[in-house]
Design a protein that fits this description.
Number of helices: 17
Number of strands: 25
Strand order of the largest sheet: 3-2-1-6-16
Distance between the termini: 58 Å
Helix content: 25-40%
Radius of gyration: 22 Å
Shape: globular
Length: 513
Amino acid sequence: MSQDYLLGIDVGTYESKGVVTTADGEVVAHAAIGHELSLPGPGLVEHDAEGVWWHDFVTLCRQLLQHTEVKAERIRGVGVSGIGPCVLPIDRAGRPLRPAILYGVDTRASEEIAELERELGRDAIYAVSGSHLSSQSAGPKVLWLRRHEPHVWAQTDVILTSSGYLVFKLTGEKVLDHYTATAYAPLYDLHHNCWSTDMARPITPLEKLPRLLWSMEVAGAVTAEAARETGLAAGMPVIAGTADAAAEALSAGMSQPGDLMLMYGSTAFFIQKTARLIPTDRLWSAIFLEPDTYVVAAGMATSGSLTRWFRDHFAQDAVVAERSGGPNAYAALAEQAAASPPGSRGLLALPYFSGERTPLNDPEARGLIIGLTLSHSRADVYRALLEGVGYGIRHNIDAMKEAGAPPGRILAVGGGARNLLWLQIVSDIAAVEQYVPSQNYGASYGDAFMAGVGVGLFANSAQVADWVQYERVVRPDPGRHARYDEYYRLYRQLYEDNVETMHCLARLAMQSD
């Protein structure tokens, strides 16, 4: 066994995970901790940076060091990732001034998006940032903060995201990685790898934005204070880190152009490695973790959080049974849904329960279940929701093909990838094969590998292929695919036919709050 060890910790939407690995990728300790999401109002989604992000990081460090004989001094480096992009204002003393505003599931900045497009020009924004503004864009949320909470803005020293806050707490450095910065549209200049003075003008002074680094660059070292809190060794190198989806892509073994990571998380997220920067106005073009690396990225606003919503509101019996020693509630629902045929006995679901990111880029889209009759069961509705996410995944894959970036290997990761029924539904709908990695530690595993690159154990991110093996390949069934084709056509038409009603309902919901 190698004498070098690496630490990776990821903070997710509902759960944080950590691993300690050898330099060969063997996991010698792992831990996870759950947390809640704050929903203070319609379209508002937040996390407590201290109570969730830092609390989880400290707790996981302590647990990992307790459950392994590895001494803290033998850990060569720390890699972190987190949900992103988030908007967290901190003051000069480093104290969070409010809860963090989360990524694309938070849709509060619709008016700011429209205003920035009017003032800066939609085409000009796209020319600089490589993407159009959407609920995923952090720039409009920074403007929302400045406009709606001037007392907070007046005290704001710098805006950080989740991984950046963890790095700050560990090292005192205020940094952001280039990959996550691309989601700070329109603030980031994709072509010059820097903040854009012109785009920042109506939003924020540049001094309120963090220093930019590549994800695997060492940002600093663990301070004495952070060492006391976490149990880590003072002076340990900490890399800049990145967004959870990018770290998850590495954990899936994404190493060559054409590899597409499909993350079944609270949201569905897609990252495809490309040989060059590919312009697309429906998806997100981005640089990746190192200089001269590129990706096309995409994201649905609701996937795993939709199954959680259904479990919590319509399957409490399954939750109670699980707490009493019965099967996992999600597994029980999947078993029931497997008895419903493809098409869920004539049901269609639009999974836009938090608006939709790509390729619609519509924060006011809303969920819809259509075709209900008195003969439908809970199993039918649950399967329809799984299929609805599957249609959304196919929609994004189709958009990638149309942009000139057809996927090669599809690498399926995330908690939802443990649901074999869901994987099969997606393969059948989209007519794709999905490779499922043997390890399921998620983004934290990618974080540990990135730390290894940062401290010089590996030359670049492509060497992650040496770490990752695959336990199964899920292949499509041609007959079921043909059946799903008609449902998919109706799925695409359903949004077009109902978009005006969705937007009216979204506005009415905001007025009634």
